[in-house]
Amino acid sequence: MKKKDKYQRYSEEAFKLLPAPVSEIQVQKKNSSRYSIFVKNQFLIGVSDSTLTKLNLKKGVEITPSFLQQIEKQEDQWAAREYMFRILSRRDHSRKELKDKAYKKGYSGSFIDEILDEFEQKEYINDRKFAEKYAADKFEFNDWGPYKIRTQLFKKGISKSIAEQVINTTFGDQAIKESMMTLITKRKKRYLREPEEKRRKKVFDYLMRKGYDSENILKHLDELLSLISGE
């Protein structure tokens, strides 16, 4: 007999009756998109309408232990797909983010990549569009610099080629300069309390933490310091 585990969906009592034909199929009272499968008038397993259709489950179809395993696998796939759909309804995700969340939730197997391939084909997920929106949002609303955004895109599974293209599109020299000036203006009072000899390092370190590279910071550092002193 198949060993019971925490992911098992079927009834142990009904399993002992297999192989047996489906004796009845009922729509579940609490969820009209799910169905209860019975063998010899005993509840065996609950399935989605997707599983019911794909496996052609109907009255009289014989359920064997191996077929039951196939039903469970199909239910796992359906559940994983529904879970990832719910995640996408909240916000956009990269492919890697979705995959990591599915694994963390306990879903695994080759069907995860199959679902993600389907999502990509239907453009439910698109790493390039995700990266473009992520970079634009973090630059506009969080004042993150290109280095920090690039690092975060890599962590989210965005390829180096896509990340670099997006960074180059998002960050022009003038936009970078204006963003740094905005950041320093917001902290002007704080820097005015610092001795002048310490301001250079404070400004440099702060902008580095925000994700701006040293070349761009040094290029505009004197102008940023003048912004603080009002010169």
Q: Can you tell me about this structure?
A:
- It comes from Gracilimonas sediminicola.
- By secondary structure, the protein is α+β, with helices and mostly antiparallel strands.
- It has 3 domains: about 110 residues, Winged helix-like DNA-binding domain superfamily/Winged helix DNA-binding domain (Arc Repressor Mutant, subunit A, Orthogonal Bundle), CATH 1.10.10; about 45 residues, Arc Repressor Mutant, subunit A, CATH 1.10.10; about 55 residues.
- The chain has a 4-stranded antiparallel beta sheet with strand order 3-2-1-4.
- The radius of gyration is 28 Å and the shape is rod-shaped.
How are the SSEs placed, and which strands pair?
Elements: H1 12-15, E1 20-27, E2 34-39, E3 42-48, H2 49-54, E4 62-63, H3 65-90, H4 95-105, H5 111-121, H6 127-142, H7 146-155, H8 160-170, H9 173-186, H10 188-192, H11 196-209, H12 214-229
Antiparallel strand pairs: 1-2, 1-4, 2-3
Helix pairs in contact: 4-5, 6-7, 6-8, 7-8, 9-12, 11-12
Family: Belongs to the RecX family.
Domain RecX second three-helical: 126-166
Pfam families: RecX_HTH1, RecX_HTH2, RecX_HTH3
